[in-house]
Specification:
alpha/beta, Alpha-Beta Plaits, Helix Hairpins, four-stranded antiparallel β-sheet, 24 helices, 10% strand
Amino acid sequence: MTMTKTTHLPPRLSGPAKGPAGPASAGPGVAGMTTRDFLRVIQKRKWMMVLICTVCVGLSVAVTAVWYMYFPSYTATALLEVNPPADVMARAQMFPQPILERYKRDQAQLILAKYLPKAIDEQKLRDTTWYQSLIRNQEDPVRELIDAIRVRPIPETSYIELSMVGRNKQELPNIVNTVAATSEKMASADMLGNLAETIEKLKKEQVRKSDEIKSIQSQMSTILGASDVAGMLERRGTSSIELEILTRQVAEGQNLQADAQAVLKAVLDAQQEGTLASSAEVQGALLMNMQYRAMTMRSADLKTSLSNIVRRLGPNHRQVLATEGALESITLEVDELRKQIITDTVQIVIQTRRLEAARAAQTLAEMTARQNLVKSRMRDLERQLGQVEALRKSADMVQTQLDQINTTLLGLEVRVRTSGEGPTERTGNLLVLRNRAGVPREITRPSWSINLALGVCVGLALAFGLAFLLEVADTSIRNPGDIARRVDLPLLGMVPHGDDLDEEVADFRRVMLLEPHSPASEAFRQIRTNLLFSGPAEQRKCLLVTSPTPEDGRTTVVTNLAISVAQAGHRVLIVDANFRQPAIAELFPDAKEAGLSSALVGQANWRDVVSPTGVPNCDVIASGPLPPNPAELFGSKAMEEIIAQMKGEYDQILFDGAPVMVVSDAVVLATKVDAVILVVRAHANSIGIVQRAAGQLRHVGAHILGTVLQGVRTTAGGYLRKNYQTFYEYHQRALP
């Protein structure tokens, strides 16, 4: 309709064939419902829900009144104070609340498991009518007492509450007080037994701790020997000073060794390069050799004499020649002596440097050994001192534990001595009866507030549960949301149910002609608009209108949609393609008897069977005689040729097809047309059957353009009611 907000469900083209649809579910499911759906369900079934709630609350009031007047129950309560023992209080120093609460829970369990069964033996309890009735009925008194008595530790207090609910308010205090007194007496007896056992354990622990202290002292004496801790500390200080001195000496020795190694390497490198002979040390050795000096001076004297003789006698004189021979001989001797001196000096220098490097390494090794010895001595001292310190701490810890044991033993012995004097305050008993139960005055059960609240809650639960159960059980398509969520198809529009209109329509299939200003006619115009803007004209020129089952309103949609398109100025052709139950001829009595089947079997040309409808721009072709093989005709080559020719002469061709789930005619025809419009009848077609119909069409490759929701009701919580009101108010204001 025009008033439907298209922003909620915008028209869209369906995608390509997706294959067959999945199996249909039982219903929409509460999980898939939106908040709007929940509100719609509540509005739709609100009176049923109000009735259920009223009945439940009324029953609650009636039952509570009868219960209160004739079967009331009372509660008797006694309080036991919990007196934790010393060991529990000691553990509670660090975490008091968890330890004490746990101890209270333990005592409550002891009362239920151990003390309650003993209370049955008390004569006061056996004299009650409650006990006598149990005996007469041959029931177990112990089990019944455990079920009847409630034992509850009161949080953040030192009390345990004992309570019992019953109808005899005179006997209730006697039963509760008997159980409380029995628990107090048995807890005292258990405490004495536990104290004796604890004292014996503590005495053994006392002896063990004393022996442990003696063993630690013996170990300390063995480690210290004849010395003491002060002497060991003094030796550690002396060794520390000595180690510091040795560390400095080792560092100096390392430097000396490095220098000696560097000098030796330089000498060896000079020897390798041949430059050691020219070193100052070697040259000094030459100068210090007396023989070398004398021979050098002799050579110099001969050179001088030779020079003088040559000037005086000439170079060829016999004396000159003799002097030259002597000079040559002395020169050779000088060279030989020089080489010998250099060789000896080089060896001496190398040997000297090696001895210096060796002495430096030996000195460093001796100092390092002394350093390691001092370090070892200090490690031994540190280890011994550490052992002594650890033993001393262990001895102190054991002594502290021994002192605690002695203190605990003293307290327990005092407690044992004073426990025989009776239950006085906190001296002897783990449980002390502080508040005895009295005769109750107020009725405990029933509670008006609880019962009325329960009635309201049960009523609401039943009302909501039944409402949504009915909603879930209804698997039919009811609104556009069901199509969007479960079928996944575009919605072209919704057509209201004829009974919900203010106008009286004689034939809803021709509502566009009979009531052109009604909401139904406006709905078909909305469908026409969505159709015209759903895609290119060549992709939607020839359309098949079908539905899952018979009587879903296919013919209604075809005729009214065709009339609305024709009124928009487009040439439209209506073709009745339902050979088994044709309906177009009934709507248009002037239609020719020969129809589509005649054209398909070749008995007539399709143009010859076209008839006018009386509506401008709108023509119709009836179905014609029923052929023996409709599906084969729809799948024939003739069908394709006829459709192609129709597209050339009309702007829009609408085929009124057979139901998809009944016969295969529509599925076959869907493969020949441009697209398919699936008509779904609200509250008649189930979600599953619509899914299967769409699946069959997709399976053959048909393009589903969208759906038309037919017969939408305006019931409470339904769609269109406000839209109808707005529509009529708008048209009334538009009247002159």
